[in-house]
Design brief:
Elements lengths: L9 H25 L4 H13 L28 H14 L4 E7 L7 E6 L5 E6 L5 E6 L1
Antiparallel strand pairs: 1-2, 2-3, 3-4
């Protein structure tokens, strides 16, 4: 009876290749999920922003109708009476404006901020205090 003899290193080499493959794949998935990456992915996201109508150098997720990009993790969307009060104050201040997003303000300008587009489509941020008074308006 003849049996073929396999080299003793076949299993360890295969195991090492699997470990390296899993590690590289996990790194790739984690990098994609966190948004980190090399310059080619950055340039492609800039190209995507430009193609969507957002200006060059706009924040991630920016579009023509939302030039501020994605909501920040340290700011919270408003709901209920607070949302209604901030929207009313912002719309009264920016005649003909359109609300894009209303949230808490983590930068310290005021308690809340309303991201808007004014009547000509220019981005505007209206900062509102806890008493629903407009503190300031920032145009881009």
């Amino acid at each position: 009876m003849s049996t073929m003899h396999r080299p003793a290193l076949t299993k360890p080499v295969a195991l090492a290749a699997m470990v390296v493959g899993l590690a590289a794949g996990s790194y790739g998935v984690a990098s994609a999920a966190s948004g980190s990456g090399n310059s080619s992915s950055s340039s492609s996201s800039s190209a995507a922003s430009t193609a969507s109508g957002a200006p060059h150098g706009a924040p991630p997720g920016a579009t023509a109708s939302n030039p501020w990009g994605n909501q920040r993790s340290d700011e919270t969307l408003l709901t209920g009476d607070t949302l209604a009060g901030v929207k009313a104050a912002a719309l009264a201040k920016v005649s003909g404006g359109t609300i894009v997003r209303v949230e808490t303000d983590a930068d310290g300008h005021a308690a809340y901020e309303a991201h808007m587009l004014n009547a000509d489509g220019t981005p505007v941020t209206v900062y509102v205090d806890k008493s629903f008074n407009v503190v300031s308006v920032e145009s881009r």
